[in-house]
Design a protein that fits this description.
Layout: H1 11-22, H2 25-38, H3 41-56, H4 77-87, H5 92-102
Length: 110
């Protein structure tokens, strides 16, 4: 099991965090798809906990994530479609999960 406080800082994670505040939603998703496809599990396991929190929000409510609860197809069909494709069972998020499972990475989430 990996312990985040013992790992060296990840340039990939730092870049994704910076992009999450600077790029529009569609571009961030495209970048995440490319990262998930191109990087090995060894580098992606550092990104995964942050990605889960950035999508679904934090338990304390400080981070709202992608605000999926309020995302509606009729109100914003483009963002809705992008989010649905990304989170689809055969989409990039689950491909990341499968890639990490194949390498036997484990995560503790509250």
């Amino acid at each position: 099991m990996a312990f985040p406080h013992l790992q060296q800082p990840s340039f990939l994670l730092a870049t994704l965090k910076a992009d999450s505040t600077n790029k529009p939603f569609a571009q961030r998703c495209q970048d995440l798809v490319k990262v998930i496809e191109d990087f090995p599990a060894k580098e992606l396991h550092v990104v995964f906990p942050w990605l889960v929190e950035s999508i679904f929000g934090s338990l304390d409510g400080v981070l709202v994530g992608w605000n999926l609860r309020c995302l509606q197809g009729r109100v914003n069909p483009v963002e809705y479609s992008i989010a649905m494709e990304f989170l689809d069972p055969s989409g990039p998020m689950m491909k990341l999960v499968y890639k990490l499972q194949a390498e036997d990475y484990r995560f503790d989430f509250p």
